[in-house]
Amino acid sequence: MKKALIIVGSILLAIVLVVGSYFAYVFIAFHRLGDMILTPAGEAEFKTVETQTTYTLLSYNIGFGAYESDYGFFMDGGKESRAWSKERLDANLKKIAELLDQNEDFCFVQEVDIGSTRSYKLDERDYLTPSFEGYSNVFAQNYDSPYLFYPVTCPHGASKSGIMTFSKAEITAAERVELPIESGVSKLLDLDRCYSKSRVQVANGKELVLYNFHLSAYTSDGTIANEQLKKMIADMESEYQKGNYCIAAGDFNKDILGNSSDYFGKSDKEYTWAQPIPEGTFDETHISLFAPLDEENPVPSCRNADSAYHEGQYVVTIDGFMVTDNVTVKTTEVIDTGFAYSDHNPVKMEFSLND
Predict the structure, then answer these.
(1) Are the CB atoms for 281 and 230 separated by under 8 Å?
(2) Domain ranges of the chain
């Protein structure tokens, strides 16, 4: 009996040591990338942008290429932790690249993996860049996470992912700007966060400053995304006060319509992760939010990937635009792909810069 207890105790002790060592590894390996200067690549079609000229900008969170219409992600309530297979991921990324090859003047892409377990270590930039011949491009790594050994049967693994900006006008300078994140265990789920800031010359001697972002999603109550948004707005306001034009586009992870269910109907399951942007966020600024919406034919920009896409699934608009007062927004829209390639639909804006 004593021998049996010793054996059981030894097994339990070994399990505790293994689990404890793993959690120690996760906390020790966690790190933030910080602010950094980015190096633009590619050959742009033109040097400057003009005022009083209409340009287009497309923004698309590609969901690391995994979120086909039949995909459900474990952190959203689904079962999958990785893309279905390397072959299906390859095929889906090629379809995404074809979709993005629409000759827009600017294109912002979020959740581009560059060596993640979940996407079979593919560098997804290699799929996107060929669609943008004649563009400058900048990549900013959003996070570099330690190995997540969950779900146990098929661990999510380590993740390296970022945001990519393409511009027909030459990007003369760019930087990665670190955003605040939650502390404690929550930071291990939401990972690091940043926005990229790219500069383009305007013919009148000013600059067009482009902000590409993907704000926090898996947080305790959504307040950290509010702080992230405030930091970016303050940056844009500072650039506006210098006389520059500012445009931000990306994934807010906020219900930017305020109450998307008013437009898309109640879902079969309700979720609270997409909170509205707090009232007063844009008060005393020269910045406006533009949420893409056709009230006669409303199309959501995101679905909750708790299962395959289906009628009645929770949908919401969390992708959109912010501009300073010296930018005129002419149209905005959500491009309806039926969530065929991602849990997001692309959003598009037509704009011009004022004299």
Answers:
(1) yes
(2) 1-30, 34-353
